[in-house]
Amino acid sequence: MATEVQTKLEALRARTMREAQEVLTEQLPTRAVALGALHKELVSRRASGDHRVARATVESWRTNLYEEIPVNAAVMDAANRVRGEIEHVLAQTDSLKTWVELSMPRMEDGNNFGVEVQMEVLEMINALYKSGRQTLANLTIYNRSRGKLLTNMRKRLHLEDYAASIATIDDVYFSMLIQHCFDLFNSILVLRDTMMKNIEKLRKPKGEMNSIFVQ
């Protein structure tokens, strides 16, 4: 029974290794290319003002109390696309994290060659994961903040500041999406570069010569 369990465990580890290598060599570069293209597109759209709602439209929302107020389609499209990229990256880095953690030797046994690199990689993955999750949380903050501004705008028709604030919050959030997109793009490139430069230390830590991660 113990042998059967060990066999299944080794098979699971081997599969994790294969998946991690595919993420490292194929999927992360694909995501980086997609993010680079998305970042370039969003920068261009910001420059053209494509993400802005016309002031006349906002004024109609302020005065026509029964008019339905739509979301900013350009901002929400960008947000949904950035969200999709973040979710892809978080899922892909999960397998990298599992691989690095499983292949880490026990330092108390003196097998500490490569551990520093592995710890650095884990810190980078954790930082990327935390940043991605925070960005996802910011999506709901934007929707909630914009909704409150629109509600207040209709309650206080004599205050034009609310109408101006709608344009401001759309501008600020669109710029944040562009920055998040670039930060994720940069984090992926740096993480992959670090792992590829230290791939042998990650695959074959000292004292782990019989590890199933060794190729």
Automatic annotation (TrEMBL):
GO terms for cellular component: cytoplasm; nucleoplasm; proteasome activator complex. GO terms for biological process: regulation of G1/S transition of mitotic cell cycle; regulation of proteasomal protein catabolic process. The keyword Cell cycle does not apply. InterPro entries: PA28_C, PA28_C_sf, Proteasome_activ_PA28, Proteasome_activ_sf. It comes from the Eukaryota. Residues 69-209 form the Proteasome activator PA28 C-terminal domain. Pfam families: PA28_C. Keywords: Proteasome. GO terms for molecular function: endopeptidase activator activity. Belongs to the PA28 family. This is Proteasome activator complex subunit 1. The lineage of its organism: Eukaryota, Sar, Stramenopiles, Bigyra, Labyrinthulomycetes.
